[in-house]
Amino acid sequence: MCERVVTAPVFDEIIHAPNRLQICAMLSAVESAEFSVLRETLAVSDSVLSKHVKVLQTEGYVEVTKTSGKAARSTWIALTAEGRQALAGHLAELHRLSDLANVDGG
């Protein structure tokens, strides 16, 4: 039987920025994603995405791998185990805050 690990709710200012939150959320669903796919999905420039990836990389939340082939070079971004844990904690905190706000009036 597989045990589910519960992550404590922790607000993470690094992840909270909208683009970084979207990057982490997208990466959490895959092993890794190509830089260009993230850029197109977020509809941002190379420089904007690079800036956000650099912040996440400095924090240890993502790994960046550059590959080169005959046709072109690619940059791949992957969420690290630390990044997955930080995202889970941040999302848990957002859920906790949402429950406190009782926005649905129920």
From TrEMBL:
InterPro entries: WH-like_DNA-bd_sf, WH_DNA-bd_dom, WH_DNA-bd_sf. Residues 20-97 form the Winged helix DNA-binding domain. This is Transcriptional regulator. It comes from the Bacteria. It holds the Pfam family HTH_34. Gene3D superfamilies: Winged helix-like DNA-binding domain superfamily/Winged helix DNA-binding domain. Transmembrane segments: none annotated.
